[in-house]
Design goal:
Layout lengths: L2 H17 L2 E3 L7 H20 L6 H26 L3 H25 L8 H19 L7 H19 L5 H34 L15 E5 L2 E5 L1 H8 L1
Antiparallel strand pairs: 1-3, 2-3
Main location: membrane
GO molecular function: acetate:proton symporter activity
Membrane topology: Multi-pass membrane protein
């Protein structure tokens, strides 16, 4: 296919979307799969320690990934979402990328005996606050899809489960192990969401269902990294 044919085909697709009352913003690659994969893999690694599935020092391996894959790569995905005029993606990926880098540098400084280990109440407060932040982000997912919305709600619950498990005692140990298992589920949802977005971009159609939610105030984010402004009146006028 020649370049002229490709441009003509793209123009036809944009025209078809326009006739349906849809404006698609970006003309760049979708960074959402990168951000979701970075978050999912690093989260799953850390939950291996929390759940007791792996050795206690697995957390050190997770912190290594927290610097670069869960941290830097995810933060870069957020910056790339900025180019796509996706405020939600920018905030979400930059927040969690910064979270992993912050956690990794702190754990490194503690291991180097530069910082003292975090107090129990401080650790619990930190996790509780991240749960609150994630819950607030969840309130902004009602125009996305069911998978993405559940990802943020389940992640908020994970932070609160982990906060409840901080400290000593059999009940807190049990809650931490439960949180570790819950965290594997959260990571699986993120892997699924990222793969669904990647396969759609690669193959040109939705392969894995994500169950899009209805637009809110004529704005849809059916794909994590693609923002659409939907105006039903334009679509009806074009059809008439």
């Amino acid at each position: 296919m020649s370049q002229a044919d490709s441009i003509a085909l793209l123009a036809q697709r944009l025209q078809a979307l326009s006739e349906d009352g849809i404006k698609v913003n970006p003309a760049t690659a979708n960074p959402a799969p990168l951000g979701l994969y970075g978050f999912a893999l690093t989260t799953a690694l850390l939950q291996g320690q929390k759940s007791g599935l792996t050795e206690p020092n697995t957390g050190q391996l997770a912190m290594g990934f927290g610097f670069f894959f869960g941290g830097l790569a995810q933060f870069c995905a957020g910056l790339l979402e900025y180019q796509r005029r996706n405020t939600f993606g920018t905030v979400a990926f930059c927040c969690y990328g910064a979270f992993w880098m912050s956690l990794a540098i702190y754990q490194t400084l503690v291991a180097a005996q530069v910082f003292a280990p975090v107090p129990v109440e401080g650790d619990r407060l930190m996790l509780t606050l991240w749960g609150i932040l994630t819950f607030l982000l969840w309130l902004c997912t009602f125009h996305t899809n069911l998978v993405t919305s559940w990802l943020f709600l389940s992640l908020a619950l994970l932070f609160w489960f982990l906060a409840g498990g901080v400290g000593s005692g059999d009940e807190r140990t049990t809650l931490t192990k439960f949180a570790g298992g819950w965290g594997f589920m959260v990571a699986a949802v993120a892997f699924y969401d990222g793969t669904a977005a990647l396969m759609k971009d690669v193959y040109g159609k939705q392969i894995l269902p994500v169950f899009p939610l209805k637009p809110v105030n004529k704005v849809s984010l059916g794909d994590f990294g693609t923002k659409r402004f939907v105006d039903p009146e334009v679509g009806e006028a074009a059809k008439a």
